[in-house]
# Entry
Amino acid sequence: MLKTITLVGIGGAIGSILRYLVSTGIQNKFLSSFPYGTLCVNISGCFLIGIVYALATRGNVSPEWRFFLATGICGGYTTFSTFSYESLTLLRENELFYAGTYIAASVILGIFATFLPVVIIEKI
# Structure
């Protein structure tokens, strides 16, 4: 149990640092209130966890690596709590178009990005 907690903690720290770097790096390229950085992190995080899930179901990833990669790194990297906060902020600022676009794109592209590597890896 301690080994798993340690792996999740280390992975979470790595994922959180990556989330900060990717999100701020992308957001700084746009002069907009639309949260491009968080959207990119959410979609790429969904894609990454799809890869881990697909490989784990094939037996290519040990339980320890799955905890480290999926629960740790991907859990620290993805930002759906930030998604929720930013959606609420856009709604409260009456940015209804941005709010609707952000919510729809996050959900639809997130599901697609999780599904795509599963389908691809199942075909290999």
